[in-house]
Amino acid sequence: MSIQICDIVLYSHDGRRRVLSFNVGEVNVITGASKTGKSAIIDIVDYCFGSGTCRVPDGIIRRSVSWFGVRLQLGDGQGFIARKCPPRSSNSSEECYLVVGGDVEIPEFDSIHQNTNSKGLVTTVSDWTGVMENIHIPPRGQTRSPLVASVRHGLMLCFQPQDEIIRRGQLFHNANDHWKAQGLKDVLPYLLGAVEDDYVQKQEELRCLKAELRMIERKLDGLKALRGEGIGKAGELLAQARDVGLSSAPDLGEWEDIVSSLKEVASTPIGQIEEPDSGSEEYERLSDQREALLIEKRHIQNQIYAARSLEKAESGFTTEASEHQARLVSIGIFNQSDYERHVCPLCSFELGGNSPSQQASDIQTSLLKISEQLERVSRNTPHIEKAIAGVEKSLSETQEKLRQNREEMFAVRQADERLRQLKDDTAKKAHILGRISLYLESLPELPETQALAEQAKRLEMDIVVLEEQLADEVIQEKLESIVSLLSLKMTDWARSLKLEHSKYPLRFNLKKLTIVADTSDGPIPMERMGSGENWVGYHLIGHLALHQWFTQHHRPVPRFLFLDQPSQVYFPPEPVEDRSIDELEDDDHQDLRRMFQMVFKLVLELVPGFQVIITEHADINEDWYQDAIRERWRGGLKLVPEDWPYN
């Protein structure tokens, strides 16, 4: 679905309407004198389609108009857009009105009110135009943000104002703005169809497939880590089980089969493991005896340790007390005879009276107690040594019994080799069973790896297909193919118009948004081609070729093209009131006639899919041209009636 223009509607401040009607699928001509408002039509439509700036010239139009509106043909239905004329202090207004239906009547002034803003307006009209969800992601290394195409990009291919249609260095509307030109370059592959309409959907599908594949690969990596490389942990355990006779499973390569065999081994009851016979009662008796002797040995060793600790403590006390006694004796303090003669133990002064003083008596008593304690410790030391010697003898006897017990047990084992072997085998089997059980308990509930691997393979194949469809190389190849076809059409039309350099192949240069002639001396861009007639001619064939492609391939670009005064290069700079191509020289007359006939012919070929609106001074006195004239703005008739009040 795309859009064409049914009416342009202006509302005065007092509620009157000015309706300028067009036929869809046809060429529509508005002819008239200068300064009647013809060139403002493009700016009005652009503003109603969500332009961020109102470029309608200041003056009569902006002072006399309250709302600008357009009624649109939307395939099977119609839509109406109105946007408030901005006040003098502003360049735009966010007051926008939208309505859509089967057959939409042009609303009266009183029924217009804001029901959306400029952003909502652009979104809605983009949807009416057929712009699908899309996004352009810049190549790696470029810093600009991803861009989403909208109707605003398509409109750059729909307008050719008076001052742009004659520019040799600018082919498209507003392409002199670097950022807008770059945006158009980015979205042209989508608008032309090199990027498919479901590109964003496929991008999202590709993202989801890659995320799912990464999740499955992580699961497979986790399983691989659990299973190990080659035989892995499970294989080692199964091999050990076979070695001790717990399993007869073959050496299988698949991890699931190995784990299944391990589960069979682990399910074997412990009671089914062959238990060794007792061998002999003597061996058991000797084992019990050895256990008792070891306990006795530990008990004796503890006794020796306690006795040695006591001995060490007494030895320390004796040493310390003896040193103190020696010091006292050396200075003559401790003397038994002095004590009996009532002599002071500190200064040897003979004390008077029948008995010594209480203090002297206490000192002498303490010294005597120390002496007595030393004597008792000295008397106890030989008893401790004797007790230790007795315990050590018992230890020696126990160790001898242990040695004899060990020799007897060795002899019994040597006599019954089968008993030893059975004990070892049983212990080994129990150990391996324990390891297998622990391994199996540590395993999570794992999905079937074969199914996961097959799923991953299918995802990889789907990803490859999508990546091939979305690859930059594929898009570039499609774009080059489309440009090649457009270039053939432009070359053919340029020759029919007899444009300069038309004997050479022409092509679009989408990187520079221009037309290039490939000559034997090298490429010649449009900016190096001479004369205004050639610049207008190349603008014309470039836009017609694009719109023919857009229409035939149902691309989401508005189905109209505005051409503002394409004949201006054939007339003098100062226009007279009325212009007729009969005033021109024969060559110019024929060139201008061929140019208009090309436009009419293409619109007729595409009917009803394409609409052209021409604003012109020139008037061609032929039926095919006269039938296309919708209004003549002469004799006081203008875009804005002269009796409308100013704001």
Structural write-up:
The protein is an alpha/beta fold. The chain has a domain of 135 residues. 51% of the residues lie in helices and 12% in strands. A 5-stranded antiparallel sheet has the order 2-1-4-5-6. α16 links the parallel β11 and β12. The longest helix is centred in the middle third of the chain and has 58 residues. The radius of gyration is 56 Å and the shape is elongated.
Key traits:
51% helix, 647 residues, five-stranded parallel sheet, 17 helices, alpha/beta
Radius of gyration, in Å, reads 56 Å
Shape: elongated
Spatially, the strands of the biggest sheet line up as: 2-1-4-5-6
Unreliable residue stretches: none
> Which percent bin holds the helix content?
40-55%
Give the count of helical stretches: 17
Bin the strand percentage: 5-15%
Please identify the structural class as seen in this structure.
alpha/beta
DSSP summary, beta strand count? 13
Overview in brief:
By secondary structure, this protein is an alpha/beta fold.
Would you spell out the secondary-structure blueprint of this structure?
Blueprint: E1 4-12, E2 17-21, E3 27-32, H1 40-48, H2 60-64, E4 65-74, E5 77-84, E6 96-101, H3 118-129, H4 151-155, E7 159-160, H5 178-192, H6 199-227, H7 232-243, H8 255-266, H9 281-330, H10 336-340, H11 358-415, H12 417-442, H13 449-470, H14 472-497, E8 506-509, E9 514-519, E10 522-525, H15 532-552, E11 560-564, H16 586-606, E12 611-616, H17 623-626, E13 629-633
Parallel strand pairs: 3-12, 3-13, 7-11, 11-12
Antiparallel strand pairs: 1-2, 1-4, 4-5, 5-6, 8-9, 9-10
